[in-house]
Protein 1
Amino acid sequence: MSRPRVRADLDSLEGYHSPQVEVEVRLNTNEAPDAPPAGFAEAVARAALAVEWHRYPDRAATELREAIGGLHGVSADQVFCANGSNEVLQTVLLTFGGAGRTVLTFQPTYALHGHIARITGAHTVVAGRDTNFLVDPDQACTVISTERPAVTFLCSPNNPTGIVEPEATIRQVLQAVTEVDGLLVLDEAYGQFSPFAGETLVSDDVPLVVTRTYSKTWAMAGARLGYLIGPAWLVSELEKVVLPYHLDVLKQAAGLAALEFLDQMEARVSGIVEERGRLTAALRSLGAEVWPSGANFILFRPPGGDGNAVWQGLVDRSVLVRNIAGWPHLNGCLRVTVGSPGDNDRFLAALTEVLK
């Protein structure tokens, strides 16, 4: 039987996967350690009862965009919502990337930046980082001037390293992107855990979008809801590309309900940041090499540098972290999500046993 051929540029492409195994403590996918407040679930349940299921949802997600805009101090027409920040990234790349255009990433970083760029047919250029996993702004500007990317990705706090880029670096890269008529995508999926927020740079005359997600700080990974803030004219272009009615009515209601619990979200973020400090200190006391994190996870290299063996030892003790020991530039490293105090204690106890 004959089979249709996939595009030649996708023939050797591998899908994005986060390996899952059955364990008691799951600290590998940067999820929130606790569910949203009980009142959130009750609000969503009430919304579900009021849904007119035979009608299409509000295509423009007007109420949700207005509420998110209010949260960030921008207008609704500067907000674009989608099914997780990954669909936000995909829509940006379908609009401003694609065949004949170049997309720039700085490795190591979030793998889906380059992955989605390739899926949408763009030529992908990969630049490096310095020994501290920071972007060298002068080198970045040289690459941007030479390659003239249509879209440049900068992830801060960066995944999987947790590193926060200095505001001066972001501004310098943004200036270089502006000079080549490109777009800077500042991925702030973990922005609420960091002291700097790129939304302060957003303006209708600046080629910058800042992406956020409900998955981490709002504890809504199961909902798949993300958004960006950026110039109103750019959001208008995205609306031409995204599929109609792509945000279902219940997801819009859940996004609105979550924003009613801002104080609780901020308290959860503060608790995670506190636990992050405790975990960092404990890992260093065990002899691990630890990088400073502005996110809800920590990159570390176990003493001895054998991340694969340590990862397996943790799994044997029913604790799962992300094994990135074989990734470029991350030899021997593991990434652990900051979980609940109890889960963090289980992780540290298991790691102590493995290292012995």
Protein 2
Amino acid sequence: MHVLITGAGGHLGRKLFDFLAEQRGFTVIGLDIRPVDHPDIHVADFGETPDWARHFENVDVIVHLAGDREPGASWESSIRNNMDATLTLYHQAAEKGVSRVVLASSNWLHGDKRFSDEVLNSQTPPGPVNAYGMSKLFCERTGKYFADMHGLSVICMRIGWTQWTHDNQPGPHMAMGRWGQEMWLSDQDFLLGMHAAITAKNVSFATLNLMSDNPGMRWDLEETKRVIGYQPRDGAAAKVPLSLAIKGATKRLFTQIIPSTFERLFPMW
């Protein structure tokens, strides 16, 4: 199987590139906006004219990790590097006969659910709270269009939190309290999940959570297990100090409980 990874020099991209390169039956090449010291990782700016699409020839699966990954990304960057770039990539992939795109989506699609109790899966209405989250929603929905209209298999993986620091070990050092810890994704589970998405059979379109099996989390992994056969091997319960628990409860009171109570009591206000 011939796999191309965009963002192959990045935090997740290089881990996946090296992992797949060691697997029997895989040929792997990569694209990255910066030069990478590897003969099979080439320079490409997805916001520019798509001369980079020449690398799509004879590719079976594209894993699209490139883009602005910062939650605080500006609208300008989110449009150029996430929305427009991914739309062009879908067009080029369909034109070049690529079978599947595995898209790096994000848990920020459900950013408005942080202080709620909702189970989070593909049926949960999205609620992005920033330009980054909105750009990932756009990339998912355009992926659905290309699946329906052009026969391009698109699997959108809503990737959890794989840290740059702390050797990616979970714990109370992670930001965003319980929410942050419960979306933890181990390196091993990231690689297993992406391998499953690359090799899964008979999937036209899917939006799937990719976290480790963390006890008590609200991200539902059952669909991921059923659709692509993902079997996480790691998991960690959140450890939330009292100070963070109080802070989280206070935010939930003012962002969820009080507004919903007011709306119920005064529906015509």
Protein 3
Amino acid sequence: MQTVVGVLRGGPSREHEVSLKTGAAILANLPEDKYLARDIYIDKQGQWHDRGRATTPDKILRQIDVAFLGLHGEYGEDGEVQKLLERFGVPYTGSDSFGSYLAMHKIMSKHKAEEVGLLTPKFHYIERASDAEAIAREVVQHFRQPVVVKPVAWGSSVGVSIVGGYAPVLAAIQHLFNEGSPTVVVEEFIKGQEATAGVVEGLRGEQLYTLPPIEIIPPTGDFFSYNSKYSGETREICPGNFTRVESEELQRLSKVMHRALGLRHYSRSDFIVTPKGIYYLETNTLPGLTAESLLPKSLASVGVAFPDFLAHLIGLART
């Protein structure tokens, strides 16, 4: 008998369009002999839809065996939809509600990284828009310019900017508050090789299987911004041009953070490799699974077929 898999995609986040693509990739690659897929669309207002009709979560969730989360950003990765699924007792792919919240909150995840001995850029946490001017002055005085300004709990590099000088830093902070980010972080800009490394639980008989680290080379004059992530202009090399020691350390650190944040099933952590060491940036609990996304490329590099990976995650969700 086929397992009914509800693929949740869309959602009320700034990553709505990317989530649609991730969900489409999941729907297209679920093995049809094992699974009966249900395309569950959540619009930008948070309304759930089943087969083109607006409905409520309770009506849909009673009809599926497992939920496959193709959501990104707020609601999808911050623990909110996970809490809903837990309340209804529906198994789902990815980390639980608390682990998702912890990883999505860039300050909490940085503190966890520091607790387990990882390097991470120095930062200022801004909880109130009224503090923006004072912190912008402090940042310009004490941090080498430019700096990175980003929202604390958005993903896919949405809202991230690299700016230098008092006026640009202040403007970037104020812009994020105006755009609805409840809190903002300003951190050191670490120059080096951008890297990401994924882990998958239970793959190939390993408790926590590490995928080859990917080197990310954005277009000249850009960083790994939202646009460069999905425009096809960024070069993504897998395995990356790292020394053996660097590659092994990236893999080790990705496992360390997966465990430190209490995550499940799979995750992908981002780093900067420098001569002084490897700096931890953040961890993605629901990495993109589009054709342009990083995790499918690292899976392909070690011969893991995408449909097999999806089936593996469903198996983890149901155990």
